[in-house]
Amino acid sequence: MPHSLSSEVTLYGFTSTGKTSFMYAFIWAGRSCCIGNAQNHSNGRLDMNFMIKSKSHPNWTYPDPEEFHFNKVKATQGRLPYRTTVKIERTPNNPSIQTQLLSCFEHTIALRDQIGGNFQYLVLDKQDGNGTGQIAHIHQDLNLATDILVFLDPNSMVEGQHNLIRYLEHVENDNGKRIALCVTKMEQMREQWLEYKDNPKDLLREYFEHMDEALDIIEDRFGAENVRTFLTSAAGFVDGDRERPNYDSNTDQLLEERLWKPCQILHPIFWLLEEKERSCVSPSEGDSYIGYDLPPEI
Asked: How far apart are CA 53 and CA 191, in angstroms?
């Protein structure tokens, strides 16, 4: 029987930092992907099937990922509903190995997506229309979350993105939270992506004001091993050399939807999932556990 795991993940970022596009791209990129690693087992290389299903608010319908059209859905549906449930099943694709591998998993992830403007009220000390009620609701979401995806846009002039991270020092950490810092829209910064791909945290320090202190605060709060930075692109690139962004800033849509290939969108969430899986396998299963060895995509 597979291990059944559930997570409550809060999407945490200002307006227009790419939360909705990230999740659309995650569901698209994960619709049918194969995960493996170089570890040799008695039966050879073990690849893993990754399947994702989305179940959302009753008033919001998500199309079959195989027939998904990003531009149309984004134009008509807009942002994700407040809570989207994603189901992930991970099992060996080789039946002869499946009976021997003990680490099969089923994940149920509840993704809570607050409206980005609410976070600006929260961390910039502004007044929201509902007084302190909305702020208290956001704080509760952060406390209840098993993990947090933080969205940071280096192309944005929004002030105080470092305060978004600093605020996390007020969040409870009694359930081993992990914090994935997702730097978004990196297709617009290809040269910087290549420069910082091996040390993405250095990009945060370079392009976001006061980020050194903010990173020190949350690494002290949650543990440096539980905070990781990822460079991501929901739009990806049009060409094989990855020089031309697949994004039109005038229309906020993909240039070539048929060539849509998001970059490193799966990595942050898989990092969260792997830790959950490792924490629940028994010592006897440890040698058979297969992680999410995803290669860098740029």
From this structure: 35
Tens digit of pLDDT for each residue in 198-249?
A: 999 999 999 888 899 999 999 999 999 999 999 999 999 987 778 889 988 8
Per-residue HEC secondary structure of the chain comes to: CCEEEEEEEEEEECCCCCHHHHHHHHHHHCCCEEEEEEEEECCEEEEEEEEEEEECCCCCCCCCHHHCCHHHHHHHHCCCCCEEEEEEEEEECCHHHHCCCCCCEEEEEEEEECCHHHHHHHHHCCCCCCCCHHHHHHHHHHHHCCEEEEEECCCCCCCCHHHHHHHHHHCCCCCCCEEEEEECCHHHHHHHHHHHCCCHHHHHHHHCCCHHHHHHHHHHHHCHHHEEEEECECCCECCCCCCCECCECCCCECCCHHHCCCECCHHHHHHHHHHHHHHHCCHHHHHHCCCCCCCCCC
Which pTM was predicted? 0.83
CATH, domain 3-282, list 1.10.357.10, 3.40.50.300, 3.40.930.10, 3.30.420.10: 3.40.50.300
CA distance 152 to 208: 9
